[in-house]
Amino acid sequence: MGIAATGLTKFTKNDVPIELLMGSSVKPIFNEATNLEHKDIEVVLTSTNANNKYLANIVSEFCGISPKIAHSVESLCNSGTNCIVSAYAYILSGLAKTALVIGAERTDSPGLVLEWDKSRGQYKHPIYWSSMFTSAHMRKYGTTMENLAYVSAKNHRNALDNPHAYFEREYSLEEIMESKNLTTHVRLLDCSMPCNGAGAVLLASEDVITKFVDSPVWITGIGQKATSAGFTKNNDLTSMSSTIHSAADAYQMSGKKPVDVDVAELHDAFSICEIIELEDLGFSKKGSGAAYVKQLYDTNNRKINPRGGLIGSGHPLGATGIAQTIEIFQQLQGTARKRQIHNSKVGLVHNMSAASTSSTVLVLES
Amino acid sequence: MNKFEKELKNNNFLCSQCTNCDKIVWPPSEFCSKCFSDVIWRPVSKYAKLVEFSSKDNNYFCIAEFEDSIRVMGSVENASDLHVGQTLVLINCDYDGREKFVFKSVSRT
Question: Where are the domains of chain B?
Protein backbone atom coordinates (compact mmCIF):
# COMPACT_ATOMS: atom_id res chain seq x y z
CA MET A 1 0.00 0.00 0.00
CA GLY A 2 1.42 3.35 -0.96
CA ILE A 3 0.94 7.07 -1.35
CA ALA A 4 0.74 8.17 -4.97
CA ALA A 5 0.15 11.93 -4.81
CA THR A 6 -0.43 14.79 -2.38
CA GLY A 7 -1.92 18.26 -2.17
CA LEU A 8 -1.63 21.00 0.41
CA THR A 9 -2.96 24.52 0.90
CA LYS A 10 -1.15 27.40 2.51
CA PHE A 11 -1.97 27.56 6.24
CA THR A 12 -3.57 30.94 6.97
CA LYS A 13 -6.26 32.65 8.97
CA ASN A 14 -8.21 33.54 5.81
CA ASP A 15 -11.93 32.92 6.21
CA VAL A 16 -12.54 30.10 3.74
CA PRO A 17 -15.39 27.52 3.97
CA ILE A 18 -14.09 24.09 4.92
CA GLU A 19 -15.37 22.37 1.78
CA LEU A 20 -13.49 24.92 -0.34
CA LEU A 21 -10.33 24.38 1.74
CA MET A 22 -10.64 20.66 1.15
CA GLY A 23 -11.30 21.05 -2.56
CA SER A 24 -8.25 23.32 -2.87
CA SER A 25 -6.02 20.57 -1.51
CA VAL A 26 -7.42 18.00 -3.97
CA LYS A 27 -6.61 20.08 -7.04
CA PRO A 28 -2.82 19.46 -6.87
CA ILE A 29 -3.46 15.70 -6.63
CA PHE A 30 -4.89 15.70 -10.15
CA ASN A 31 -1.87 17.70 -11.36
CA GLU A 32 0.65 15.47 -9.60
CA ALA A 33 -0.77 12.01 -10.28
CA THR A 34 -0.32 10.82 -13.81
CA ASN A 35 -3.32 9.29 -15.59
CA LEU A 36 -5.62 9.92 -12.61
CA GLU A 37 -9.26 10.13 -13.59
CA HIS A 38 -12.15 11.00 -11.31
CA LYS A 39 -13.61 7.53 -11.73
CA ASP A 40 -10.41 5.97 -10.37
CA ILE A 41 -11.14 7.23 -6.83
CA GLU A 42 -13.15 4.63 -4.96
CA VAL A 43 -13.02 6.02 -1.41
CA VAL A 44 -13.15 9.61 -0.18
CA LEU A 45 -12.56 10.17 3.53
CA THR A 46 -12.58 13.60 5.15
CA SER A 47 -10.67 14.34 8.32
CA THR A 48 -11.94 17.22 10.43
CA ASN A 49 -13.43 18.24 13.76
CA ALA A 50 -15.83 20.64 12.06
CA ASN A 51 -19.50 19.96 12.64
CA ASN A 52 -20.34 20.01 8.93
CA LYS A 53 -22.53 17.06 8.01
CA TYR A 54 -22.10 14.81 4.95
CA LEU A 55 -18.79 16.55 4.27
CA ALA A 56 -17.08 13.70 2.40
CA ASN A 57 -20.03 13.53 0.01
CA ILE A 58 -20.13 17.31 -0.41
CA VAL A 59 -16.41 17.53 -1.16
CA SER A 60 -16.68 14.54 -3.50
CA GLU A 61 -19.40 16.31 -5.44
CA PHE A 62 -17.37 19.55 -5.52
CA CYS A 63 -14.50 17.57 -7.01
CA GLY A 64 -16.64 15.60 -9.45
CA ILE A 65 -15.97 12.29 -7.70
CA SER A 66 -18.62 9.59 -7.11
CA PRO A 67 -16.82 7.17 -4.78
CA LYS A 68 -18.08 3.84 -3.46
CA ILE A 69 -17.40 4.92 0.11
CA ALA A 70 -17.45 8.46 1.53
CA HIS A 71 -17.50 9.57 5.17
CA SER A 72 -15.71 11.66 7.77
CA VAL A 73 -13.23 10.58 10.44
CA GLU A 74 -12.87 12.61 13.64
CA SER A 75 -10.33 12.06 16.38
CA LEU A 76 -9.38 15.60 17.48
CA CYS A 77 -5.76 16.41 16.62
CA ASN A 78 -4.85 13.04 15.09
CA SER A 79 -7.92 12.88 12.86
CA GLY A 80 -5.62 13.10 9.84
CA THR A 81 -3.56 10.00 10.45
CA ASN A 82 -6.62 8.12 11.75
CA CYS A 83 -8.19 8.90 8.38
CA ILE A 84 -5.14 7.58 6.53
CA VAL A 85 -5.23 4.39 8.59
CA SER A 86 -8.94 3.95 7.82
CA ALA A 87 -8.22 4.38 4.11
CA TYR A 88 -5.37 1.87 4.40
CA ALA A 89 -7.78 -0.64 5.93
CA TYR A 90 -10.35 -0.16 3.17
CA ILE A 91 -7.71 -0.87 0.53
CA LEU A 92 -6.14 -3.77 2.43
CA SER A 93 -9.58 -5.35 2.86
CA GLY A 94 -10.09 -5.36 -0.90
CA LEU A 95 -13.12 -3.09 -0.75
CA ALA A 96 -11.25 -0.52 -2.82
CA LYS A 97 -8.00 -0.02 -4.71
CA THR A 98 -7.71 3.74 -4.23
CA ALA A 99 -8.65 6.19 -1.50
CA LEU A 100 -8.48 9.97 -1.35
CA VAL A 101 -7.95 11.28 2.20
CA ILE A 102 -8.66 14.98 2.71
CA GLY A 103 -8.09 16.78 6.01
CA ALA A 104 -8.99 20.35 6.90
CA GLU A 105 -9.75 22.60 9.84
CA ARG A 106 -10.68 26.19 10.57
CA THR A 107 -9.74 28.32 13.56
CA ASP A 108 -13.34 28.16 14.78
CA SER A 109 -13.07 24.37 15.14
CA PRO A 110 -14.98 22.83 18.06
CA GLY A 111 -12.08 20.37 18.37
CA LEU A 112 -9.73 22.76 20.17
CA VAL A 113 -11.05 21.95 23.66
CA LEU A 114 -12.40 18.59 24.89
CA GLU A 115 -15.30 19.72 27.07
CA TRP A 116 -16.22 16.12 27.94
CA ASP A 117 -13.18 15.60 30.15
CA LYS A 118 -14.58 16.23 33.63
CA SER A 119 -11.27 15.31 35.20
CA ARG A 120 -9.76 18.52 33.82
CA GLY A 121 -12.20 20.66 35.84
CA GLN A 122 -11.90 24.33 34.87
CA TYR A 123 -8.58 23.65 33.18
CA LYS A 124 -9.75 22.28 29.85
CA HIS A 125 -7.62 24.44 27.57
CA PRO A 126 -4.57 22.53 26.24
CA ILE A 127 -2.10 24.97 27.90
CA TYR A 128 -2.97 23.36 31.23
CA TRP A 129 -2.11 19.77 30.32
CA SER A 130 1.00 21.06 28.64
CA SER A 131 1.96 22.83 31.87
CA MET A 132 1.58 19.56 33.77
CA PHE A 133 3.85 17.65 31.36
CA THR A 134 6.40 20.45 31.45
CA SER A 135 6.45 20.75 35.22
CA ALA A 136 6.82 16.98 35.63
CA HIS A 137 9.62 16.72 33.03
CA MET A 138 11.49 19.60 34.63
CA ARG A 139 11.30 18.03 38.05
CA LYS A 140 12.43 14.60 36.95
CA TYR A 141 15.01 15.47 34.30
CA GLY A 142 16.01 19.07 35.00
CA THR A 143 14.52 20.33 31.74
CA THR A 144 14.51 24.14 31.59
CA MET A 145 12.46 26.87 29.93
CA GLU A 146 15.53 27.55 27.79
CA ASN A 147 15.45 23.93 26.60
CA LEU A 148 11.85 24.48 25.49
CA ALA A 149 12.83 27.62 23.60
CA TYR A 150 15.20 25.60 21.42
CA VAL A 151 12.27 23.50 20.15
CA SER A 152 10.34 26.59 19.14
CA ALA A 153 13.37 28.36 17.64
CA LYS A 154 14.33 25.26 15.60
CA ASN A 155 10.85 24.65 14.28
CA HIS A 156 10.16 28.29 13.41
CA ARG A 157 13.51 28.33 11.58
CA ASN A 158 12.67 25.13 9.69
CA ALA A 159 9.27 26.58 8.72
CA LEU A 160 10.97 29.41 6.84
CA ASP A 161 11.59 26.97 3.98
CA ASN A 162 8.05 25.61 4.07
CA PRO A 163 5.95 27.67 1.64
CA HIS A 164 2.72 26.36 3.21
CA ALA A 165 3.58 27.33 6.81
CA TYR A 166 1.51 29.83 8.76
CA PHE A 167 4.57 31.51 10.29
CA GLU A 168 6.92 33.25 7.89
CA ARG A 169 9.57 34.61 10.23
CA GLU A 170 12.29 33.33 12.49
CA TYR A 171 12.12 33.79 16.26
CA SER A 172 15.28 34.12 18.30
CA LEU A 173 15.78 32.22 21.53
CA GLU A 174 15.53 35.55 23.34
CA GLU A 175 12.21 36.43 21.70
CA ILE A 176 10.82 33.05 22.65
CA MET A 177 12.13 33.29 26.21
CA GLU A 178 10.53 36.73 26.54
CA SER A 179 7.21 35.87 24.88
CA LYS A 180 4.10 36.10 27.03
CA ASN A 181 3.84 33.62 29.88
CA LEU A 182 0.48 31.89 29.50
CA THR A 183 1.34 29.84 32.59
CA THR A 184 4.57 29.45 34.56
CA HIS A 185 5.46 26.58 32.24
CA VAL A 186 4.04 27.61 28.85
CA ARG A 187 4.92 30.73 26.85
CA LEU A 188 3.01 31.95 23.83
CA LEU A 189 5.81 30.91 21.45
CA ASP A 190 5.89 27.40 22.94
CA CYS A 191 2.40 26.84 21.50
CA SER A 192 1.21 25.72 18.08
CA MET A 193 -1.21 28.10 16.38
CA PRO A 194 -4.72 27.03 15.33
CA CYS A 195 -5.23 28.10 11.74
CA ASN A 196 -7.06 27.30 8.52
CA GLY A 197 -5.61 24.79 6.11
CA ALA A 198 -6.09 21.54 4.22
CA GLY A 199 -4.10 18.61 2.92
CA ALA A 200 -4.90 15.59 0.79
CA VAL A 201 -3.18 12.31 -0.04
CA LEU A 202 -4.05 9.68 -2.62
CA LEU A 203 -3.51 6.11 -1.43
CA ALA A 204 -3.51 3.14 -3.79
CA SER A 205 -2.95 -0.58 -3.68
CA GLU A 206 0.33 -2.02 -4.89
CA ASP A 207 -1.18 -3.43 -8.08
CA VAL A 208 -2.53 -0.10 -9.39
CA ILE A 209 -0.32 2.57 -7.82
CA THR A 210 2.27 2.71 -10.60
CA LYS A 211 -0.47 3.93 -12.94
CA PHE A 212 -0.39 7.18 -10.93
CA VAL A 213 3.24 7.55 -9.84
CA ASP A 214 6.57 6.04 -10.87
CA SER A 215 8.07 5.91 -7.37
CA PRO A 216 5.43 5.55 -4.67
CA VAL A 217 6.07 6.01 -0.96
CA TRP A 218 5.05 2.88 0.91
CA ILE A 219 3.25 2.74 4.25
CA THR A 220 5.14 -0.06 5.97
CA GLY A 221 4.28 0.45 9.62
CA ILE A 222 1.19 1.57 11.52
CA GLY A 223 0.68 1.89 15.26
CA GLN A 224 -2.33 3.37 16.99
CA LYS A 225 -3.31 3.50 20.63
CA ALA A 226 -6.16 5.19 22.48
CA THR A 227 -5.18 5.06 26.16
CA SER A 228 -8.22 7.04 27.25
CA ALA A 229 -10.13 10.22 26.53
CA GLY A 230 -9.51 11.83 29.91
CA PHE A 231 -6.11 13.47 30.39
CA THR A 232 -5.63 12.27 33.96
CA LYS A 233 -5.36 8.61 32.90
CA ASN A 234 -1.79 9.17 31.61
CA ASN A 235 -0.21 8.36 34.95
CA ASP A 236 3.43 9.23 34.24
CA LEU A 237 3.46 12.86 33.18
CA THR A 238 7.03 12.63 31.87
CA SER A 239 5.90 10.17 29.18
CA MET A 240 3.10 9.73 26.69
CA SER A 241 1.78 6.21 27.11
CA SER A 242 -0.14 6.07 23.83
CA THR A 243 2.93 7.23 21.92
CA ILE A 244 5.10 4.48 23.40
CA HIS A 245 2.52 1.83 22.47
CA SER A 246 1.83 3.08 18.96
CA ALA A 247 5.55 3.47 18.22
CA ALA A 248 6.24 -0.11 19.32
CA ASP A 249 3.54 -1.44 16.99
CA ALA A 250 4.67 0.69 14.04
CA TYR A 251 8.31 -0.33 14.48
CA GLN A 252 7.34 -3.99 14.78
CA MET A 253 5.11 -3.93 11.69
CA SER A 254 7.76 -2.19 9.58
CA GLY A 255 10.72 -4.11 10.97
CA LYS A 256 12.45 -0.76 11.51
CA LYS A 257 14.07 0.70 14.59
CA PRO A 258 14.46 4.34 15.66
CA VAL A 259 18.04 4.32 14.37
CA ASP A 260 16.76 3.42 10.88
CA VAL A 261 14.60 6.56 10.63
CA ASP A 262 16.11 9.27 8.43
CA VAL A 263 13.46 11.93 8.92
CA ALA A 264 10.47 12.37 11.23
CA GLU A 265 7.48 14.59 11.80
CA LEU A 266 6.59 14.83 15.49
CA HIS A 267 3.44 16.32 16.98
CA ASP A 268 4.87 19.40 18.73
CA ALA A 269 1.58 20.88 19.90
CA PHE A 270 3.76 22.51 22.56
CA SER A 271 7.54 22.64 22.94
CA ILE A 272 7.55 20.05 25.72
CA CYS A 273 5.77 17.58 23.44
CA GLU A 274 8.69 17.30 21.00
CA ILE A 275 11.12 16.65 23.85
CA ILE A 276 8.97 13.90 25.38
CA GLU A 277 8.16 12.38 21.98
CA LEU A 278 11.82 12.20 20.98
CA GLU A 279 12.34 10.10 24.08
CA ASP A 280 9.19 7.98 23.77
CA LEU A 281 9.78 7.28 20.06
CA GLY A 282 13.31 6.08 20.84
CA PHE A 283 15.27 8.87 19.16
CA SER A 284 16.91 9.76 22.47
CA LYS A 285 17.14 8.30 25.94
CA LYS A 286 14.67 9.39 28.61
CA GLY A 287 15.80 12.73 29.93
CA SER A 288 17.97 13.44 26.87
CA GLY A 289 15.32 14.85 24.55
CA ALA A 290 16.21 18.46 25.33
CA ALA A 291 19.92 17.92 24.64
CA TYR A 292 19.00 16.20 21.36
CA VAL A 293 16.92 19.22 20.29
CA LYS A 294 19.76 21.61 21.13
CA GLN A 295 22.13 19.54 19.04
CA LEU A 296 19.71 19.65 16.11
CA TYR A 297 19.41 23.42 16.49
CA ASP A 298 23.13 24.07 16.82
CA THR A 299 23.99 21.96 13.77
CA ASN A 300 20.99 23.14 11.70
CA ASN A 301 19.95 19.50 11.38
CA ARG A 302 16.40 19.27 10.05
CA LYS A 303 15.84 15.57 10.70
CA ILE A 304 13.05 16.27 13.19
CA ASN A 305 10.15 18.38 11.94
CA PRO A 306 11.76 19.63 8.72
CA ARG A 307 8.58 21.47 7.66
CA GLY A 308 8.58 23.34 10.98
CA GLY A 309 6.30 21.04 12.93
CA LEU A 310 3.03 22.34 14.33
CA ILE A 311 4.79 25.21 16.09
CA GLY A 312 6.26 26.62 12.89
CA SER A 313 3.65 25.49 10.35
CA GLY A 314 0.46 26.08 12.32
CA HIS A 315 -2.03 23.48 13.52
CA PRO A 316 -5.25 23.09 11.52
CA LEU A 317 -6.28 20.01 13.51
CA GLY A 318 -7.84 17.76 10.85
CA ALA A 319 -5.15 18.69 8.32
CA THR A 320 -2.13 18.31 10.59
CA GLY A 321 -1.61 14.55 10.31
CA ILE A 322 -2.08 14.77 6.55
CA ALA A 323 0.43 17.64 6.26
CA GLN A 324 2.94 15.69 8.36
CA THR A 325 2.53 12.69 6.06
CA ILE A 326 2.92 14.88 2.98
CA GLU A 327 6.21 16.22 4.34
CA ILE A 328 7.58 12.71 4.80
CA PHE A 329 6.26 11.73 1.34
CA GLN A 330 8.19 14.63 -0.19
CA GLN A 331 11.31 13.86 1.83
CA LEU A 332 11.29 10.24 0.66
CA GLN A 333 10.64 11.28 -2.93
CA GLY A 334 13.50 13.78 -2.78
CA THR A 335 11.19 16.70 -3.62
CA ALA A 336 11.38 18.63 -0.33
CA ARG A 337 13.61 21.32 -1.92
CA LYS A 338 15.43 23.42 0.71
CA ARG A 339 14.05 21.19 3.46
CA GLN A 340 15.42 18.00 1.90
CA ILE A 341 17.22 15.56 4.18
CA HIS A 342 19.81 13.97 1.91
CA ASN A 343 19.16 10.39 0.86
CA SER A 344 16.08 9.81 3.06
CA LYS A 345 14.77 6.27 2.75
CA VAL A 346 12.76 5.78 5.95
CA GLY A 347 10.44 8.36 7.51
CA LEU A 348 8.17 8.47 10.54
CA VAL A 349 5.01 10.40 11.33
CA HIS A 350 3.83 10.90 14.90
CA ASN A 351 0.41 12.49 15.38
CA MET A 352 -1.44 12.62 18.71
CA SER A 353 -4.58 13.96 20.34
CA ALA A 354 -5.77 15.52 23.56
CA ALA A 355 -2.68 15.41 25.77
CA SER A 356 -1.53 12.27 24.01
CA THR A 357 -4.47 10.26 25.25
CA SER A 358 -4.28 8.76 21.76
CA SER A 359 -1.46 8.57 19.23
CA THR A 360 -0.77 7.37 15.72
CA VAL A 361 2.66 6.47 14.35
CA LEU A 362 3.26 5.73 10.67
CA VAL A 363 6.47 4.42 9.15
CA LEU A 364 6.91 5.30 5.49
CA GLU A 365 9.56 4.03 3.08
CA SER A 366 10.67 4.97 -0.42
CA MET B 1 -27.38 18.60 34.56
CA ASN B 2 -26.79 14.98 35.45
CA LYS B 3 -26.56 13.68 39.02
CA PHE B 4 -22.79 14.18 39.24
CA GLU B 5 -23.07 17.79 38.09
CA LYS B 6 -26.05 18.58 40.36
CA GLU B 7 -24.25 17.20 43.40
CA LEU B 8 -21.04 19.00 42.49
CA LYS B 9 -23.01 22.25 42.31
CA ASN B 10 -24.20 21.49 45.86
CA ASN B 11 -20.55 21.17 46.94
CA ASN B 12 -20.73 17.36 47.03
CA PHE B 13 -18.02 15.55 45.06
CA LEU B 14 -19.39 12.11 44.24
CA CYS B 15 -17.92 9.27 42.28
CA SER B 16 -19.57 6.26 40.71
CA GLN B 17 -18.60 2.84 42.08
CA CYS B 18 -19.63 -0.53 40.70
CA THR B 19 -22.17 -2.51 42.77
CA ASN B 20 -20.70 -5.78 41.50
CA CYS B 21 -16.91 -5.46 41.28
CA ASP B 22 -16.36 -2.29 43.40
CA LYS B 23 -14.41 -0.54 40.65
CA ILE B 24 -14.37 3.23 40.97
CA VAL B 25 -15.50 4.51 37.59
CA TRP B 26 -13.85 7.82 36.75
CA PRO B 27 -14.74 10.07 34.95
CA PRO B 28 -18.22 9.31 36.34
CA SER B 29 -20.55 7.03 34.45
CA GLU B 30 -23.94 5.37 34.85
CA PHE B 31 -22.40 1.91 34.51
CA CYS B 32 -19.18 0.07 35.34
CA SER B 33 -16.49 0.24 32.64
CA LYS B 34 -15.19 -3.20 33.64
CA CYS B 35 -18.27 -5.42 34.16
CA PHE B 36 -21.05 -3.10 32.93
CA SER B 37 -23.01 -3.51 36.18
CA ASP B 38 -24.90 -0.69 37.84
CA VAL B 39 -23.06 1.85 39.95
CA ILE B 40 -23.82 3.62 43.18
CA TRP B 41 -22.96 7.24 43.80
CA ARG B 42 -20.90 7.89 46.90
CA PRO B 43 -18.89 10.77 48.36
CA VAL B 44 -15.20 10.95 47.52
CA SER B 45 -12.67 11.45 50.33
CA LYS B 46 -11.89 15.10 51.00
CA TYR B 47 -8.17 14.38 51.03
CA ALA B 48 -6.04 14.04 47.94
CA LYS B 49 -2.39 13.64 46.99
CA LEU B 50 -0.73 16.40 44.97
CA VAL B 51 0.44 14.83 41.68
CA GLU B 52 1.65 17.89 39.75
CA PHE B 53 1.18 21.64 39.77
CA SER B 54 1.84 24.88 37.93
CA SER B 55 0.51 28.42 38.10
CA LYS B 56 -1.00 31.15 35.99
CA ASP B 57 -0.75 34.76 37.16
CA ASN B 58 0.24 33.54 40.64
CA ASN B 59 -2.86 31.35 40.84
CA TYR B 60 -1.88 27.73 41.32
CA PHE B 61 -3.54 24.81 39.58
CA CYS B 62 -2.79 21.15 40.02
CA ILE B 63 -3.58 17.51 39.41
CA ALA B 64 -4.72 15.88 42.63
CA GLU B 65 -5.41 12.19 43.22
CA PHE B 66 -8.14 10.91 45.53
CA GLU B 67 -8.22 7.36 46.90
CA ASP B 68 -5.22 6.30 44.74
CA SER B 69 -7.36 6.46 41.62
CA ILE B 70 -9.45 9.55 40.97
CA ARG B 71 -7.40 12.34 39.41
CA VAL B 72 -8.81 15.81 38.84
CA MET B 73 -7.45 19.23 37.96
CA GLY B 74 -8.28 22.07 40.32
CA SER B 75 -7.00 25.27 41.86
CA VAL B 76 -4.94 25.52 45.05
CA GLU B 77 -5.64 28.39 47.41
CA ASN B 78 -3.02 29.99 49.65
CA ALA B 79 -0.38 27.85 47.98
CA SER B 80 3.11 28.13 49.37
CA ASP B 81 5.90 25.59 49.27
CA LEU B 82 3.81 23.05 47.39
CA HIS B 83 5.55 19.73 46.86
CA VAL B 84 4.51 16.71 44.86
CA GLY B 85 3.16 13.94 47.06
CA GLN B 86 1.86 16.23 49.79
CA THR B 87 -1.71 16.08 51.02
CA LEU B 88 -4.34 18.52 49.84
CA VAL B 89 -7.88 18.94 51.10
CA LEU B 90 -10.81 19.71 48.85
CA ILE B 91 -12.37 22.83 50.35
CA ASN B 92 -14.93 23.56 47.68
CA CYS B 93 -16.41 22.16 44.50
CA ASP B 94 -18.95 23.61 42.12
CA TYR B 95 -20.39 23.28 38.64
CA ASP B 96 -21.16 26.18 36.34
CA GLY B 97 -20.98 24.37 33.02
CA ARG B 98 -17.48 23.25 33.98
CA GLU B 99 -16.44 21.31 37.05
CA LYS B 100 -14.65 23.31 39.70
CA PHE B 101 -12.40 21.86 42.39
CA VAL B 102 -10.66 24.07 44.96
CA PHE B 103 -7.90 22.68 47.20
CA LYS B 104 -5.66 23.93 49.95
CA SER B 105 -2.59 22.44 51.56
CA VAL B 106 -3.06 20.48 54.73
CA SER B 107 -0.84 18.81 57.27
CA ARG B 108 -2.49 15.56 58.25
CA THR B 109 -1.85 14.35 61.76
Answer: 3-43, 47-105
pLDDT tens track for A9-35: 999 999 999 999 999 999 999 999 989
CA dist., res. A12 & res. A316, Å (int): 9
> What's the ipTM?
0.95
Measuring CA to CA, how many Å separate A310 from each of A132, A144, A244, A263, A300?
Answer: 20, 21, 20, 16, 18
Element (H, E) at A98: strand A98-105
Q: Cα distance from A181 to chain B (closest Cα, Å)?
A: 8
Burial A310-326 (b: 16+ CB within 10 A, else e): bbbbbbbbbbbbbbbbb
Residue-wise pLDDT tens digits, A49-63? 999 999 999 999 999
Q: Domain range spanning residue A128?
A: 120-190+220-365
Interface of A with B (CB under 8 A): 115-124, 128, 131-132, 134-136, 139, 182-185, 230-233, 237
Say yes or no: A167 and A211 in one domain. no
Query: Does an H or E element contain A58, and which?
Result: helix A55-62
Alpha-carbon distance of A170 to A72, in angstroms, equals 36
B4 touches chain A (CB under 8 A): yes
Query: Residue A184 is nearest to which of B4, B52, B54, comparing CB atoms?
Result: B54
The answer to whether residues A81 and A205 belong to one domain is yes
Task: Please state, in angstroms and rounded to a whole number, the distance separating the CA atoms of residues A169 and A160.
Answer: 6
Tally Cβ neighbours within 10 Å of residue A64: 11
Distances (CA, A) of A154 to A112, A147, A339, B53: 25, 11, 13, 28
In angstroms, rounded to a whole number, what is the distance separating the alpha carbons of residues B76 and B70?
17
- B54 interfaces chain A, CB cutoff of 8 Å: yes
Determine, yes or no, domain membership for A115: no
The whole-model pTM stands at: 0.96
Q: Report if residue A114 sits inside a domain.
A: no
Cβ contact, residue pair B54, A230, below 8 Å: no
Is B71 in Cβ contact with A119 (below 8 Å)? Answer: yes
What is the strand order of the sheet B24-25 is part of?
Answer: B24-25, B14-18, B39-43
